[in-house]
Design brief:
Elements: E1 3-7, H1 15-23, E2 33-37, H2 50-68, E3 74-77, H3 82-87, H4 95-102, E4 109-113, E5 118-121, H5 131-134, H6 137-153, E6 160-164, H7 179-194, E7 198-203, H8 205-213, E8 219-222, H9 225-236, E9 241-245, E10 251-254, H10 271-283
Parallel strand pairs: 1-2, 1-3, 3-10, 5-8, 6-7, 6-8
Antiparallel strand pairs: 4-5, 4-9, 9-10
Helix pairs in contact: 1-10, 6-7
Amino acid sequence: MPRILITLGDPAGIGPEVIDLALASGRLPVGCEFEVLGDRDAGSPGKPDTRSAAAALAALDLAVAALKQGRADAVVTGPVSKEGLQALGFPFPGQTEYFAHAFGVTDFGMLLTGATLTVGLATIHEPLAKVPGLLSPEQIVRTGLLVAGFLKRRGFAMPRIAVAGLNPHAGENGAFGDEETRVILPAIRRLNESGSGIFSGPSVPDAVFREAALGQFDAVVAMYHDQGLIPLKLLDFDNAVNVTLGLPIPRTSPDHGTAFSIAGRKLADPSSMIAAIRLACELA
Protein backbone atom coordinates (compact mmCIF):
# COMPACT_ATOMS: atom_id res chain seq x y z
CA MET A 1 0.00 0.00 0.00
CA PRO A 2 1.70 3.25 -1.10
CA ARG A 3 2.17 5.72 1.74
CA ILE A 4 1.67 9.35 0.74
CA LEU A 5 2.90 12.21 2.92
CA ILE A 6 1.00 15.50 2.81
CA THR A 7 2.57 18.65 4.25
CA LEU A 8 0.19 21.30 5.59
CA GLY A 9 2.08 24.20 4.05
CA ASP A 10 1.80 27.48 5.92
CA PRO A 11 -0.90 26.83 8.56
CA ALA A 12 -2.10 30.43 8.22
CA GLY A 13 -3.09 29.72 4.63
CA ILE A 14 -5.67 27.46 3.02
CA GLY A 15 -3.44 24.38 3.08
CA PRO A 16 -5.00 22.74 6.16
CA GLU A 17 -8.48 23.51 4.87
CA VAL A 18 -8.05 22.06 1.37
CA ILE A 19 -6.25 19.01 2.74
CA ASP A 20 -9.11 18.25 5.12
CA LEU A 21 -11.64 18.73 2.32
CA ALA A 22 -9.63 16.51 -0.02
CA LEU A 23 -9.31 13.69 2.50
CA ALA A 24 -13.06 13.84 3.19
CA SER A 25 -14.05 14.16 -0.48
CA GLY A 26 -14.39 10.49 -1.36
CA ARG A 27 -12.48 11.29 -4.56
CA LEU A 28 -9.10 9.85 -3.56
CA PRO A 29 -7.86 6.45 -4.76
CA VAL A 30 -8.52 3.40 -2.63
CA GLY A 31 -5.34 1.60 -1.69
CA CYS A 32 -3.16 4.51 -0.56
CA GLU A 33 -2.32 5.46 3.00
CA PHE A 34 -2.07 9.17 3.87
CA GLU A 35 -0.13 10.94 6.62
CA VAL A 36 -0.44 14.70 7.18
CA LEU A 37 2.64 16.49 8.50
CA GLY A 38 2.61 19.91 10.15
CA ASP A 39 1.52 21.91 13.17
CA ARG A 40 -1.98 23.29 12.65
CA ASP A 41 -1.73 25.37 15.79
CA ALA A 42 1.31 27.33 14.59
CA GLY A 43 -0.71 29.93 12.72
CA SER A 44 -4.00 31.80 12.69
CA PRO A 45 -5.96 31.74 9.41
CA GLY A 46 -5.11 34.75 7.30
CA LYS A 47 -2.38 35.96 9.65
CA PRO A 48 0.98 34.58 8.51
CA ASP A 49 3.97 35.21 10.74
CA THR A 50 7.38 33.82 11.56
CA ARG A 51 5.88 30.96 13.55
CA SER A 52 3.62 29.80 10.74
CA ALA A 53 6.49 29.97 8.21
CA ALA A 54 8.72 27.96 10.55
CA ALA A 55 6.00 25.32 10.86
CA ALA A 56 5.79 25.07 7.06
CA LEU A 57 9.54 24.53 6.83
CA ALA A 58 9.53 21.99 9.66
CA ALA A 59 6.91 19.94 7.82
CA LEU A 60 9.06 19.91 4.68
CA ASP A 61 12.08 18.75 6.66
CA LEU A 62 10.02 15.97 8.28
CA ALA A 63 8.81 14.82 4.88
CA VAL A 64 12.34 14.67 3.44
CA ALA A 65 13.58 12.70 6.44
CA ALA A 66 10.75 10.16 6.15
CA LEU A 67 11.24 9.77 2.40
CA LYS A 68 14.99 9.24 2.75
CA GLN A 69 14.35 6.61 5.40
CA GLY A 70 11.99 4.76 3.07
CA ARG A 71 8.96 5.34 5.28
CA ALA A 72 6.88 6.87 2.47
CA ASP A 73 6.53 6.59 -1.29
CA ALA A 74 5.53 10.12 -2.36
CA VAL A 75 4.89 13.58 -0.99
CA VAL A 76 2.20 16.18 -1.67
CA THR A 77 3.15 19.65 -0.46
CA GLY A 78 0.70 22.26 0.74
CA PRO A 79 1.19 25.89 -0.33
CA VAL A 80 3.85 27.93 1.46
CA SER A 81 4.75 31.60 1.53
CA LYS A 82 8.08 32.01 -0.25
CA GLU A 83 8.47 35.42 1.38
CA GLY A 84 7.84 33.92 4.81
CA LEU A 85 10.32 31.10 4.28
CA GLN A 86 13.00 33.37 2.90
CA ALA A 87 12.65 35.66 5.91
CA LEU A 88 13.82 32.64 7.93
CA GLY A 89 16.90 32.25 5.74
CA PHE A 90 15.40 29.69 3.34
CA PRO A 91 17.91 29.84 0.45
CA PHE A 92 15.72 28.43 -2.32
CA PRO A 93 13.37 30.17 -4.79
CA GLY A 94 10.66 27.60 -4.05
CA GLN A 95 9.81 24.09 -2.94
CA THR A 96 10.92 22.64 -6.29
CA GLU A 97 14.51 23.70 -5.69
CA TYR A 98 14.31 22.70 -2.01
CA PHE A 99 13.46 19.09 -2.86
CA ALA A 100 16.06 18.91 -5.63
CA HIS A 101 18.74 20.06 -3.18
CA ALA A 102 17.51 17.74 -0.44
CA PHE A 103 17.90 14.71 -2.70
CA GLY A 104 21.10 15.88 -4.36
CA VAL A 105 19.47 16.13 -7.77
CA THR A 106 20.82 18.54 -10.39
CA ASP A 107 18.80 17.26 -13.34
CA PHE A 108 15.33 18.38 -12.27
CA GLY A 109 12.46 20.42 -13.62
CA MET A 110 9.05 21.89 -12.93
CA LEU A 111 5.96 20.69 -14.76
CA LEU A 112 2.30 21.52 -14.34
CA THR A 113 -0.42 19.28 -15.66
CA GLY A 114 -4.18 19.67 -15.76
CA ALA A 115 -7.20 18.40 -17.63
CA THR A 116 -6.37 20.52 -20.68
CA LEU A 117 -2.64 21.31 -20.71
CA THR A 118 0.68 19.88 -19.59
CA VAL A 119 3.51 22.39 -19.48
CA GLY A 120 7.20 21.93 -18.64
CA LEU A 121 9.43 24.92 -17.89
CA ALA A 122 12.91 25.39 -19.37
CA THR A 123 13.60 28.02 -16.68
CA ILE A 124 11.73 28.18 -13.40
CA HIS A 125 11.78 30.95 -10.79
CA GLU A 126 13.96 33.44 -12.62
CA PRO A 127 13.63 37.17 -13.32
CA LEU A 128 12.37 37.68 -16.84
CA ALA A 129 15.38 39.81 -17.75
CA LYS A 130 17.69 36.85 -17.06
CA VAL A 131 15.82 34.26 -19.12
CA PRO A 132 17.52 34.79 -22.52
CA GLY A 133 20.95 34.41 -20.94
CA LEU A 134 19.92 31.28 -19.03
CA LEU A 135 18.54 29.43 -22.03
CA SER A 136 20.88 26.98 -23.73
CA PRO A 137 20.39 23.96 -26.00
CA GLU A 138 21.50 21.75 -23.09
CA GLN A 139 18.90 23.26 -20.74
CA ILE A 140 16.08 22.82 -23.23
CA VAL A 141 17.14 19.26 -24.08
CA ARG A 142 17.26 18.38 -20.39
CA THR A 143 13.77 19.80 -19.82
CA GLY A 144 12.36 18.11 -22.92
CA LEU A 145 13.67 14.70 -21.84
CA LEU A 146 12.21 15.12 -18.35
CA VAL A 147 8.82 16.05 -19.79
CA ALA A 148 8.93 13.10 -22.19
CA GLY A 149 9.81 10.77 -19.33
CA PHE A 150 6.85 12.00 -17.30
CA LEU A 151 4.46 11.48 -20.20
CA LYS A 152 5.82 7.99 -20.91
CA ARG A 153 5.33 7.09 -17.27
CA ARG A 154 1.68 8.03 -17.76
CA GLY A 155 1.24 5.86 -20.84
CA PHE A 156 2.24 8.01 -23.83
CA ALA A 157 4.49 5.73 -25.90
CA MET A 158 5.69 8.51 -28.24
CA PRO A 159 4.57 11.79 -26.73
CA ARG A 160 4.04 14.78 -29.01
CA ILE A 161 5.79 17.74 -27.41
CA ALA A 162 5.85 21.30 -28.74
CA VAL A 163 8.78 23.52 -27.81
CA ALA A 164 7.71 27.16 -27.58
CA GLY A 165 9.75 29.99 -28.99
CA LEU A 166 10.96 32.79 -26.75
CA ASN A 167 10.18 35.85 -28.87
CA PRO A 168 6.99 37.14 -30.52
CA HIS A 169 6.13 35.09 -33.62
CA ALA A 170 8.94 32.70 -32.56
CA GLY A 171 11.44 35.30 -33.70
CA GLU A 172 10.07 35.52 -37.25
CA ASN A 173 13.35 34.45 -38.86
CA GLY A 174 15.44 36.76 -36.72
CA ALA A 175 13.28 39.87 -36.99
CA PHE A 176 12.45 39.79 -33.28
CA GLY A 177 15.45 37.91 -31.84
CA ASP A 178 17.72 35.02 -32.70
CA GLU A 179 17.21 32.67 -29.72
CA GLU A 180 14.94 30.46 -31.82
CA THR A 181 17.58 29.74 -34.48
CA ARG A 182 20.63 29.94 -32.21
CA VAL A 183 19.40 28.04 -29.13
CA ILE A 184 15.95 26.46 -29.43
CA LEU A 185 16.11 24.85 -32.88
CA PRO A 186 19.41 23.04 -32.16
CA ALA A 187 17.85 21.70 -28.96
CA ILE A 188 14.82 20.37 -30.84
CA ARG A 189 17.07 18.61 -33.34
CA ARG A 190 18.96 16.93 -30.51
CA LEU A 191 15.73 15.95 -28.77
CA ASN A 192 14.41 14.26 -31.91
CA GLU A 193 17.68 12.33 -32.23
CA SER A 194 17.07 10.93 -28.72
CA GLY A 195 14.02 8.93 -29.80
CA SER A 196 12.20 9.87 -26.61
CA GLY A 197 9.29 11.56 -28.33
CA ILE A 198 8.23 13.72 -31.23
CA PHE A 199 9.36 17.31 -30.65
CA SER A 200 8.32 20.21 -32.83
CA GLY A 201 9.01 23.92 -32.92
CA PRO A 202 10.11 26.51 -32.19
CA SER A 203 6.37 27.12 -31.93
CA VAL A 204 4.77 30.54 -31.92
CA PRO A 205 4.14 31.21 -28.22
CA ASP A 206 0.79 32.98 -28.65
CA ALA A 207 -0.68 30.04 -30.61
CA VAL A 208 0.96 26.84 -29.36
CA PHE A 209 -0.98 26.57 -26.10
CA ARG A 210 -4.28 26.76 -27.96
CA GLU A 211 -3.06 24.01 -30.27
CA ALA A 212 -2.09 21.87 -27.28
CA ALA A 213 -5.45 22.52 -25.62
CA LEU A 214 -7.15 21.28 -28.80
CA GLY A 215 -5.19 18.02 -28.60
CA GLN A 216 -2.47 18.55 -31.20
CA PHE A 217 0.27 18.13 -28.56
CA ASP A 218 0.56 16.16 -25.34
CA ALA A 219 2.72 18.83 -23.69
CA VAL A 220 4.47 22.13 -24.30
CA VAL A 221 7.97 23.07 -23.16
CA ALA A 222 7.77 26.77 -22.24
CA MET A 223 10.84 28.96 -22.05
CA TYR A 224 9.96 30.73 -18.81
CA HIS A 225 7.58 30.59 -15.86
CA ASP A 226 4.73 32.87 -16.90
CA GLN A 227 4.83 31.87 -20.56
CA GLY A 228 3.68 28.42 -19.53
CA LEU A 229 1.71 29.06 -16.38
CA ILE A 230 -0.58 31.85 -17.60
CA PRO A 231 -2.35 29.64 -20.18
CA LEU A 232 -2.32 26.64 -17.85
CA LYS A 233 -3.89 28.53 -14.95
CA LEU A 234 -6.39 30.17 -17.28
CA LEU A 235 -7.64 26.78 -18.48
CA ASP A 236 -6.88 24.40 -15.59
CA PHE A 237 -6.64 26.46 -12.41
CA ASP A 238 -9.05 24.24 -10.45
CA ASN A 239 -7.44 20.92 -11.39
CA ALA A 240 -3.78 21.55 -12.25
CA VAL A 241 -0.94 19.90 -10.35
CA ASN A 242 2.67 21.01 -9.93
CA VAL A 243 5.16 18.13 -10.33
CA THR A 244 8.88 18.18 -9.62
CA LEU A 245 10.57 16.15 -12.34
CA GLY A 246 13.78 14.23 -11.78
CA LEU A 247 13.38 13.34 -8.09
CA PRO A 248 13.80 9.73 -6.91
CA ILE A 249 10.30 9.94 -5.42
CA PRO A 250 7.13 11.64 -6.70
CA ARG A 251 6.48 15.16 -5.39
CA THR A 252 3.29 16.98 -6.34
CA SER A 253 1.46 20.05 -5.09
CA PRO A 254 -1.63 22.07 -5.95
CA ASP A 255 -1.04 24.86 -8.45
CA HIS A 256 -2.29 27.62 -6.14
CA GLY A 257 -0.72 29.57 -3.31
CA THR A 258 -1.53 30.14 0.34
CA ALA A 259 -4.52 32.43 -0.37
CA PHE A 260 -4.19 34.08 3.05
CA SER A 261 -7.05 36.45 2.16
CA ILE A 262 -9.64 33.64 2.20
CA ALA A 263 -8.07 31.30 4.77
CA GLY A 264 -10.56 30.15 7.39
CA ARG A 265 -13.55 31.58 5.51
CA LYS A 266 -14.69 28.24 3.98
CA LEU A 267 -14.18 29.58 0.45
CA ALA A 268 -11.23 27.43 -0.60
CA ASP A 269 -11.69 24.92 -3.42
CA PRO A 270 -9.92 21.58 -2.78
CA SER A 271 -9.99 20.43 -6.42
CA SER A 272 -6.32 21.10 -7.12
CA MET A 273 -5.27 19.40 -3.86
CA ILE A 274 -7.43 16.40 -4.76
CA ALA A 275 -5.77 16.25 -8.17
CA ALA A 276 -2.30 16.52 -6.57
CA ILE A 277 -3.00 13.65 -4.19
CA ARG A 278 -4.47 11.51 -6.95
CA LEU A 279 -1.43 12.06 -9.16
CA ALA A 280 0.96 11.29 -6.29
CA CYS A 281 -0.85 7.98 -5.77
CA GLU A 282 -0.66 7.19 -9.48
CA LEU A 283 3.05 7.94 -9.69
CA ALA A 284 3.80 6.05 -6.47
